[in-house]
Amino acid sequence: MIAEEKKVQQQQQTNCNELRSIPLRSNVFTERFFGSFNWEEFACGCGAAFVNIAITYPIYKMIFRQMLHGVPIASAFSQLRHEGLMFLYRGMLPPLAQKTISLSIMFGVFDGTRRYLVDDYRMNPYKAKIVAGITAGTVETALLPFERVQTLLADSKYHQYFENTQRAFRYVFSHHGFHELYRGIVPVLWRNGPSNALFFILREEACIRLPQRSSISTRAAQEFIAGAVIGASISTLFYPLNVIKVAMQSNMGHPTESMWTSTLKIYKERGNSIMYFYRGCGFNTARSFISWGIMNAAYENLKNLMTWDSL
């Protein structure tokens, strides 16, 4: 009897040891998924965004005024000149923080997700790029509060209420709650995911099909032009979603309107013409051309530098 009990206990112990030796499915998924991410992709995206924002923020501010008020570029420039240099870089901290983190997520999450889907699930490369781009864009949406505060700081009607980014965050959160920081999230989701997927597909096609340059200067110029053309085209395509987002975020404390309601309101306010959704688009295309050209060239050069240092 005692011998049988010992035999049962030994069998139970053996079964327990076997179960412990089998890794949990969730642990396997976590290790494989996060193991696909490369910190260099995050670092290069962050550095590229920093260089870009430092150069292009004043241009963004003129475009913002055109989006918000539907005025020509001369009027937007006159507004900024009248306000003075003191207010020119006002509100730069939110886009600087948001863009550096956003582009870091964009490149890092895309690369890690795509490699995981291709390596572990043998997914078609193009399908993997689409899923990875939408995933990266959705994760980026968590940074919407930066865009929200940036909108308030760039709007002249709020100059007397907010002295800086910190006070704007504190005021919005304490008076209107956390949900107010995510006003306008629907057009941002529609913008981020599809635009990311399209950007990476076109960017990688350009890398494959364009000739390989041996000279550093000609290679950098080609990277700039490729990023500029792709980025400007995508930015122009999705420009109306930015107009809707700015219109939704220019209000504070009022009930949040749906994306469709805001779209109809803008359409009626601007002469029942779809063309007015593209007011400021020409200048935005020029800014995007410069911005994405800088980011793509900076990203590629930073990546080459890190690769060279690791050899």
Automatic annotation (TrEMBL):
Q: Check the record and name the Gene3D superfamilies matching this protein.
A: Mitochondrial carrier domain
The principal location of this protein is mitochondrion
Domain of life, per lineage: Eukaryota
Q: What membrane topology does the annotation report for this chain?
A: Multi-pass membrane protein
Q: Where are the Solcar repeats?
A: 36-116, 124-209, 218-305
Q: Where in the cell is it found?
A: Mitochondrion inner membrane
Q: Which InterPro entries match?
A: MCP_dom_sf, MCP_transmembrane, Mito_NAD+_Carrier
Query: Which keywords appear in this protein's UniProt record, sorted alphabetically?
Result: Membrane, Mitochondrion, Mitochondrion inner membrane, Repeat, Transmembrane, Transmembrane helix, Transport
- Short name of one Pfam family: Mito_carr
Name the protein family: Belongs to the mitochondrial carrier (TC 2.A.29) family.
The name under which this protein is listed is Solute carrier family 25 member 51
Q: Which organism is it from?
A: Glossina morsitans morsitans
Q: What is the lineage of its organism?
A: Eukaryota, Metazoa, Ecdysozoa, Arthropoda, Hexapoda
